[in-house]
Amino acid sequence: MKVVILATNEQKKEIEIKNVSHSASLIFIASTEEIEQLEDFDAIFLLAGEPSDTSLKEYSDKPVLIHSVIDTLGDRKSPSNYSRINAWPGFLKRPTWEVAANDEDAAGLVFKELGWNVVFVKDEPGLVAARVISMIINEAYFALEEKVSTIKEIDLAMKLGTNYSAGPFEWKGIIGIRNIYCLLQRLSETDNRYLPAPLLREEYRKIYPQ
Question: Each residue of 61-78: b (16+ CB within 10 Å) or e?
Fold first, then answer.
C-alpha cells in the first residue's frame, strides 16, 4: 500500500517514529499540487494546511483522512471517502489513532495495511482524547486561578498522581493554547461545562487579541 501524506516537517517527524508495515510505503508531500505528479497510490492523509474537502474529487475512490479536530465530517459536508483524525502536536506519535469515518471499512483497511492501531469514534468535535485533555487543561487553569497550587506543582502532581506523560500546562505548551481554547469554545456551545476558564481566556486574548 502506498500512502500519500501532506504534512509539516514536525508532523513528518512524529509519523516517522511509528513503525510501518513492510508492505506499505509513505510518500510525504508539501502541497496538494504534488498529488497530481504521483502515478499510483492507495490513500491520502491531509494533515497540514486547510485543503477543501471537495478539492480532491478525482480521488473519490481512495480513502482520504483529514486533520480536523473541531469541525466534524457533518459540519464540513465531507464526501463518503473522508475520515477525520487529530494531527495536533504530539498526537500523531501516539500508539493508537482516533478516527471518525464515513466509511470505517475502507479507513480500517488503510490502518491495517500500515500496521497501525486504530479506534473508531463518533463524529463529534474534539473526537475523544483532545476533548478530555482540553478539559483537564481547563480545570488546571481553574485550580491555578483559585491558588490551589503553582503551574509547576500542578503539572508534577498530575504526572505523579495519574501517571500522565505530561502535566496539563505542559500539554498546553505542546498543543498550543489556540487549539485548546478554540475547541473549548466550540464544545461550550452545547455544554457549558466546557466554558474556558477566565485565566485561560485572558492568556489566549493576550496572544490573540480580537
Answer: ebbbbbbbbbebbeebeb
Report which of residues 186 and 60 the model is more confident about.
Answer: 186
Asked if pLDDT for residue 54 goes beyond 60, the answer is: no
The phi, psi pair for 75, rounded to 5°, reads -60, -45
In b/e form, how buried is each residue of 136-174, taking b as 16+ CB within 10 angstroms?
bbbebbebbeeeeeebeebbebbeeeeebebbbbbbbee
3-29 pLDDT, tens per residue? Answer: 999 999 999 999 999 999 998 999 999
Are 105 and 63 within 8 A, CB to CB?
Answer: no
Query: Tell me: the pLDDT tens digits for 69-104?
Result: 999 999 999 999 999 999 999 999 999 999 999 999
Q: 168-195: per-residue pLDDT in tens?
A: 999 999 999 999 999 999 999 999 999 9
Residue 88: other Cβ atoms inside 10 A: 21
Provide the 3-class DSSP secondary structure of residue 101.
Answer: strand
Reference 34, options 60, 1, 12, 56; nearest CA is 56
Phi and psi angles of residue 79, each rounded to the nearest 5 degrees, phi first: -60, 165
